[in-house]
């Protein structure tokens, strides 16, 4: 009985162990080629924007700043307030449709060339290669027991990784706290708790994800890898292995007998596997771990050049192009299909509508609050008076003087400040009174309008509705 139970438990343990793949370290081999150059070009572009944009000034302030404390968001000449959250929603929709379109056309191009995980992994791996050497040297070094040389190389590598991660964290927080103020706080050891938390959190996150987890993020943690198949179809450009041309694999030997079995172009060198950052074999077909970095294409093209075979054994192609032997023109012609045209149309419509909205956006916001403690009162001159508070927000990048008028009831007039100056990207609250003759209007609530207009720009004007109470 006990023996049977033990055998059953052992069988269950074996089955459970079989559900999980044992992790093996991926030692990606470096590769050069056109796609590698494009990938590094994207690394330079994205990081130049990320590290440099927070230092760019615009009109005496940081050009791009999401100032959480002041609740103002500066993007060059535009100033957004929390009330403008609709633009954030639109930006997310544009990003989503842009991702859908790119994926429908070219697969996981974003993952291979612009994803932060890919970009920072490339940077940290480049440092690793420069310090520890190429793939065989790194494998040999990791297999060695700890010794002074290994400790020194690992210490230098991880120190550089941490410096990059820390500076990245500082740059990230520099978009929410002005970067120059942030560096001043760091230098004087007066860094706030939230800034310190996010700097070290972001730095630790980058260090862990790009330095250690690497391909595991793409394989197990990224949700995009899981639903990418839904956005693919047989006419989506993917990295493909030409099985008809490559099989059967094998190394051609000089002096082989004429009766020997003919071989395909694949020499089974496995270099395409060695350069893959996720460690997959593209010859097994499309896999969710493939991030479309095209390193295998560059590597295979170099091998084809050496053995004297045409390039393109591994290439960007589509399932239909491989199965139906499309020409390049026919393959690219099928990229313009219903799905891509639909995504493009929706994306273009949203972008045009957003651009029109931003171009016609009035950089002025007015909120009118009536004093509810006193509905109405009789003033010294015998007229009926209601008291209001006007909150005026100048969302423009320059200072404006605004004139205030009121309408809606015959003879209504303002008593108090009629002109107010509001600095750029600032707001102010003023108190004023509106008065009418006692027998003017209807008893109870009457609809009135406050018109606030910039004296130096006729198109900067807002009409805000309010109510005037008559006893």
UniProtKB/TrEMBL annotation:
Residues 256-285 form the 4Fe-4S ferredoxin-type domain. GO terms for cellular component: plasma membrane. The chain crosses the membrane at residues 38-56, 87-111, 159-176, 196-213, 341-359. InterPro entries: 4Fe4S_Fe-S-bd, 4Fe4S_Fe_S_CS, Cyt_c_oxidase_cbb3_FixG, Electron_Trans/Redox, FixG_C, Ig-like_fold. One of its GO terms (molecular function) is metal ion binding. It holds the Pfam family Fer4_5. Keywords: 4Fe-4S, Electron transport, Iron, Iron-sulfur, Membrane, Metal-binding, Transmembrane, Transmembrane helix, Transport. NCBIfam families: ccoG_rdxA_fixG. This is Cytochrome c oxidase accessory protein CcoG. The lineage of its organism: Bacteria, Pseudomonadati, Pseudomonadota, Betaproteobacteria, Candidatus Accumulibacter.
